[in-house]
Write a structure and sequence with these properties.
The structure holds two protein chains of two kinds.
Chain A (H helix, E strand, L loop, with lengths): L2 H14 L1 H39 L3 E6 L25 H8 L6 E15 L4 E10 L3 H4 L4 E4 L4 H5 L4 E4 L1 H7 L9 E4 L2 E9 L13 E5 H9 L6 E6 L5 H16 L9 E4 L1 H44 L1 H9 L4 H30 L15 H26 L2 H6 L2
Parallel strand pairs in A: 3-8, 5-7
Antiparallel strand pairs in A: 1-9, 1-10, 2-3, 2-6, 2-9, 4-7, 5-8, 6-7
Chain B lengths: L1 H6 L2 E12 L6 E12 L3 E5 L6 H8 L7 E6 L2 E2 L5 H10 L1 E4 L11 H11 L4 H14 L15 H13 L5 E5 L7 H16 L3 E5 L3 H4 L4 E6 L2 E5 L6
Parallel strand pairs in B: 3-8, 3-9, 6-7, 7-8
Antiparallel strand pairs in B: 1-2, 1-4, 4-5, 9-10
The chains are: A alpha+beta, B alpha/beta.
């Protein structure tokens, strides 16, 4: 009996009871489809986090003063050292750090921030995050100027009343025309808008599209005073040097601030990418969890196939007897049922793959699924293996029967 | 005529065939020692009350079961010495079965059912179709070739089964109560087909408990309690 004949009789078996075949297929299809789709969702969310890491710039460090409010970077909160001889981080300290010639530090950019009301002639916006920094700010942060230009080092030196504003804030204040070159009033003082930032996705506590960024000297002069700065952004020479830079900054800052007890530093140095690596790791375990849930549904689908094969073989024992009486060998019987089980599960699996591939074109819960390459052969292989394995046993039992035993079966 | 019969080689030769089911106290001797020769072209009816062992004998003759003891030669093969694969080949090529309950494979057309033994015999598709249509024509059902068993009457189903039994041109046609499930009109149809097969020189063994069916055969064997009690072979008809 040729392979083609075996395939034909298997197909006849599959199409003989269409409803049952379709229900079996459905079990396998859902199992295979959910394995591939859920793994793709998990993988997609992991990739989103990884893209966010790449967007952050992996070679920056953030230094936050512990006692000064607005820290909240997830670092340890040290006990207050107020009243001791320890100094606070000021722009002078930042300049000293920058010019200290640390081997792995490229730039140190101080920032002060406050929250103020910003208005144009027609509208105003309250609680806008106002950041004061140097011209290097645009090198170390993800904020990029889309139109106009950033303020310059000269603007910082002269405490110029110029500002770069977020794209959303720009449209809020000047909904009809471009905000570029217009004047905005920050808590009463007028600033000229010299640049507008490119829109960016939020990755922190403030919306990066509604900020005002101005020279640090101007912000200190008009609003925050010349005391402590809120953060220092440190640019390492390369992403591999971030850890080394972190060590150098910590040692140098302790020296400059006169810290004697290093267990009680008045600042924390955080490496933003390490936070996101933790997020990426949790996304991976999320993928594993989703995969496990999906694997259970695949197993249930497989048990469905097993059940159908058992019923089919039992129900058709008489047919097996007839076939044996007509000269079918054990191999021909086994081959027929095996091919039947494999066809059912393979067909169901392929439909599941198609369904999953179509399904990944939609965002699921805000995540664009990305199919994991290995999940397709894995899910297909497991489903066919289950079908064949559990199809073999009843088929082998039936094929071994004496024809007369099989014929007597009802 | 009797002199010629001796010269013909027997298609079937049974010597001391015994069949025992179960073991020990519960064992049942279905056959207690059957000696039988069936010559080429014989039309043999095996009769006996139910439980006499005639179905057991039929299953042994058809290689559907293996005897506990004794020698069974079919067309020169010692059946006991055959492997599983060789047995399948013997069933395919040497024997054509006709069952009481027709035993057509459901959801397959009459033509596909008749083709089935040829598929297992490895006959090519076109040749298979031709032979199957020929066999269906022989039983007068060529126009029902694409009907499924459930669309056919009992008599028609049995005729398809006969076509299936004949399609491989077997050495022996074995019919187990072929008219047991049929009305008298259908019975007559089947019996006349068997008559014409016998006239064409086929070896036929039919199992029945109906006198009128057995009377059509050339030789009647009566079995009781696992032994042959009467054999009309050699008796003038």
């Amino acid at each position: 009996m040729s392979f083609f004949e075996i395939l034909r009789s298997a197909m006849r078996g599959v199409t003989a009871n269409k409803l049952r075949s379709v229900l079996t297929l459905l079990g396998v299809t859902i199992g295979v489809g959910s394995v591939i789709l859920l793994l793709a969702v998990g993988n997609g969310s992991a990739q989103t986090v990884q893209n966010a890491i790449a967007g952050l710039g992996t070679n920056t460090l953030t230094v936050r003063a512990s006692q000064v409010g607005g820290g909240g970077g997830g670092g340890t909160t040290t006990a207050s050292t107020a009243g001791s001889s320890v100094k606070t981080i000021t722009t002078a300290v930042a300049d000293q750090l920058d010019s200290a010639g640390l081997g792995h530090v490229k730039e140190v950019v101080p920032q002060v921030s406050t929250s103020l009301t910003v208005s144009s002639t027609s509208t105003s916006s309250t609680d806008v995050s106002v950041i004061g920094s140097t011209a290097e700010y645009f090198d170390v942060s993800t904020a990029k100027v889309a139109s106009g230009a950033a303020f310059t080092a000269a603007d910082v030196t002269t405490s110029a009343k110029v500002a770069v504003i977020g794209s959303e804030l720009a449209t809020t204040l000047y909904p009809t025309g471009s905000a570029l070159g217009q004047t905005v009033s920050v808590d009463g003082s007028s600033f000229t808008v010299v640049g507008i930032l490119a829109p960016q996705s939020s990755s922190g506590f403030t919306d990066p599209n509604t900020v005002v960024i101005a020279p640090i000297t101007r912000i200190q002069k008009s609003y925050t005073g010349y005391g402590a700065v809120s953060t220092l952004t440190v640019l390492a020479t390369s992403s591999d040097d971030v850890t080394a830079a972190q060590g150098e900054i910590t040692v140098m800052l302790n020296q400059l601030l006169g810290v004697t007890d290093t267990s009680d530093e008045p600042f924390t140095v955080t490496n933003e990418s390490s936070l996101l690596e933790t997020a990426a790791a949790s996304a991976t375990s999320f993928t594993v969890l989703l995969g496990a849930v999906a694997a259970i549904s695949l197993l249930v689908g497989g048990i469905g196939v097993t059940n159908v094969m058992l019923v089919t073989v039992t129900e058709r024992t008489r047919e097996i007897g007839i076939r044996k009486a007509l000269g079918a060998t054990r191999g021909a019987i086994l081959g027929q049922f095996l091919t039947e089980a494999a066809t059912l599960t393979l067909l169901g699996g392929v439909l599941g793959v198609i369904g999953a591939v179509i399904g990944t074109h939609w965002e699921i819960n805000g995540t664009q699924p990305v199919i994991l390459g290995y999940s397709i052969p894995l899910a297909l292989g497991v489903s066919v293996a289950i079908g064949v394995f559990f199809g073999v046993y009843p088929a082998a039992r039936a094929a071994r029967m004496r024809p007369i035993q099989a014929l007597r079966a009802i | 005529m009797t002199g010629l019969e001796i010269d013909r080689p027997p298609v079937l030769r049974l010597q001391g065939i015994q069949q025992v089911y179960g073991t020990g106290e519960a064992s049942v001797h279905a056959l207690r020692g059957i000696d039988l020769d069936v010559a080429q072209g014989d039309y043999l009816a095996i009769m006996g009350p139910s439980g006499s062992g005639k179905s057991t004998l039929m299953n042994l003759l058809g290689c559907l079961d293996i005897a506990s003891d004794g020698v069974y030669e079919l067309a020169g093969h010692d059946v006991r010495s055959l492997t599983e694969r060789e047995l399948a080949k013997v069933r395919n090529e040497e024997i054509g079965f006709v069952f009481q309950s027709f035993n057509l494979v459901p959801r397959m057309t009459a033509l596909a059912n008749v083709e089935l033994p040829l598929i297992y015999g490895g006959v090519r598709r076109a040749e298979r179709r031709r032979l199957a249509l020929e066999a269906l024509d022989l039983v007068g059902l060529a126009d029902r070739a694409d009907h499924q068993p459930q669309q056919l009457s009992g008599g028609q189903q049995q005729r398809v089964a006969i076509a299936r039994a004949l399609v491989t041109s077997p050495t022996l046609v074995l019919a187990d109560e072929p008219t047991g499930n049929l009305d008298s009109a259908s019975t007559e149809e089947i019996l006349s087909i068997l008559d014409s097969l016998a006239d064409a020189g086929r070896t036929i063994v039919i199992i029945t408990h109906e006198e009128n069916v057995a009377e059509r055969a050339h030789r009647i064997l009566t079995i009781s309690d696992g032994l042959i009690i009467r054999d009309t072979a050699g008796v003038l008809q």
